[in-house]
């Protein structure tokens, strides 16, 4: 009758997805951030939920509607995302780290608005923790998926991230490529497995890309 049966290939799996940018406050008015809109992460959360997973989405600020049936934790800064992710980590089977976490935050956070003066303003930034690196070090049975946003040497840098962060799968996208990256409705990603397989997906909607990534995770996680 053409009835759609829900797919349940992730039922019983706890999946943690991170999405969106983080914001690093300079003062009560201003922040440093990036162009992430959260679309890819939200698509992954919705796709995993529709396939039966228990999904926890930890997200930076976005304009997107909360995906139905998903547990959501809203954070602002990288440090807040760090705490939320580390807290959830022991209970999860799969982590998909789509978020574009700010690598640096302003060293000083002014309590009052910074007023303009003549001449230059110098900002001093300090490193944020690398959340995914920490997950890789503390890994027990979790299947860890990282994203790599690059503008050049896509595969090389993605492979380095896989090694350094002890990942099981890296999803690399060239954010400078037409039809890929920040904000658009489509993406073009290359998946790199721990065994060295390189799988380039065609341009697809972010939801289709999400399902293809989940297909790959299911295959690899089952055969570990
Ligand atoms: N990541 C993270 N915590 C950070 C920075 C990045 O968890 N402080 C995660 C991202 O969520 C992503 C992966 O690490 O899954 C790669 O992020 P990316 O910015 O591409 O790489 P970096 O390791 O930060 O290296 P660089 O920005 O210098 O290329
Ligand atoms: Ca980075």
Automatic annotation (TrEMBL):
Involved pathway(s): Cofactor biosynthesis; coenzyme A biosynthesis; CoA from (R)-pantothenate: step 3/5; Cofactor biosynthesis; coenzyme A biosynthesis; CoA from (R)-pantothenate: step 2/5
Cofactor: Mg(2+); FMN
GO biological process: coenzyme A biosynthetic process; pantothenate catabolic process
Chain positions covered by the region annotation Phosphopantothenate--cysteine ligase: 15-224
Reactions listed under catalytic activity: (R)-4'-phosphopantothenate + L-cysteine + CTP = N-[(R)-4-phosphopantothenoyl]-L-cysteine + CMP + diphosphate + H(+); N-[(R)-4-phosphopantothenoyl]-L-cysteine + H(+) = (R)-4'-phosphopantetheine + CO2
Manner of cofactor binding, per the entry note: Binds 1 FMN per subunit.
Keyword list, A-Z: Decarboxylase, Flavoprotein, FMN, Ligase, Lyase, Magnesium, Metal-binding, Multifunctional enzyme
Record-listed CTP binding positions: 103, 113, 129-132, 147, 161, 165
EC number(s) on file: 4.1.1.36, 6.3.2.5
Gene Ontology MF terms: FMN binding; metal ion binding; phosphopantothenate--cysteine ligase activity; phosphopantothenoylcysteine decarboxylase activity
Domain of life (superkingdom): Bacteria
Free-text function comment from the UniProt entry: Catalyzes two sequential steps in the biosynthesis of coenzyme A. In the first step cysteine is conjugated to 4'-phosphopantothenate to form 4-phosphopantothenoylcysteine. In the second step the latter compound is decarboxylated to form 4'-phosphopantotheine. Catalyzes two steps in the biosynthesis of coenzyme A. In the first step cysteine is conjugated to 4'-phosphopantothenate to form 4-phosphopantothenoylcysteine, in the latter compound is decarboxylated to form 4'-phosphopantotheine.
Protein name per its UniProtKB record: Coenzyme A biosynthesis bifunctional protein CoaBC
Organism: Formimonas warabiya
Full-protein residues shown: 176 to 399 of 399
């Amino acid at each position: 009758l053409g009835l759609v049966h829900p797919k349940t290939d992730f039922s019983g799996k706890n999946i943690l997805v991170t999405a969106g940018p983080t914001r690093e406050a300079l003062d009560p008015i201003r922040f440093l951030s990036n162009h992430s809109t959260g679309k890819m992460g939200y698509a992954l959360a919705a796709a995993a939920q529709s396939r039966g997973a228990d999904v926890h989405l930890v997200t930076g600020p976005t304009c997107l509607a909360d995906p139905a049936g998903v547990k959501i934790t809203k954070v602002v800064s990288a440090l807040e995302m760090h705490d939320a992710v580390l807290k959830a980590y022991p209970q999860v089977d799969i982590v998909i780290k789509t978020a574009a976490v700010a690598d640096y935050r302003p060293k000083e956070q002014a309590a009052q608005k910074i007023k303009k003066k003549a001449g230059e303003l110098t900002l001093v930034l300090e490193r944020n923790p690398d959340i995914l690196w920490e997950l890789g070090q503390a890994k027990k049975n979790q299947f860890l998926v990282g994203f790599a946003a690059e503008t050049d040497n896509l595969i090389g840098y993605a492979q380095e991230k896989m090694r350094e962060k002890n990942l099981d799968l890296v999803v690399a996208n060239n954010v400078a490529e037409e039809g890929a990256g920040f904000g658009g409705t489509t993406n073009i990603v290359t998946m790199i497995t721990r065994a060295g397989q390189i799988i380039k997906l065609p341009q697809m909607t972010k939801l289709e890309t999400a399902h293809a990534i989940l297909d790959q995770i299911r295959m690899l996680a089952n055969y570990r």
